[in-house]
Amino acid sequence: MSASEIASEICPENLYGCPIADAGSLSSLPSTFADWVSGGFECVDVTADLEACGGCASLDIKHDCTLISGAESVSCMSGVCLVDSCLPSYKFDSDRSICISK
Predict the structure, then answer these.
(1) What is the domain range of residue 89?
(2) Residue 96: is its pLDDT beyond 80?
(3) Contact 39/26 with Cβ under 8 angstroms?
(4) Quick check: helix, strand or coil at residue 83?
(5) What is the DSSP string of 2-19?
(6) What CA–CA distance (Å, rounded) separates 73 from 59?
């Protein structure tokens, strides 16, 4: 079984297994079930979870919507981070995925 198949099978339906680690600190999913268990994992809804939006933040920091620079409020819709509001000295970019300095 591949690492991504384990991630899909290790959790209840509609949830995906993500290794517990700092955002962006891992280069790949654990390769065996034993590695998943020993390293720790959480089951997340990658379509709506703010800290695992579209994938595991431990593999790529872009999946943690809460880390978007200049954002005051964020959401995760269908696995895509959206900025709901920016801090006062920032404004939306054209597709509302980041905040940029005014």
Answers:
(1) 3-101
(2) no
(3) no
(4) strand
(5) -HHHHHHHSSSTT-EEEE
(6) 23
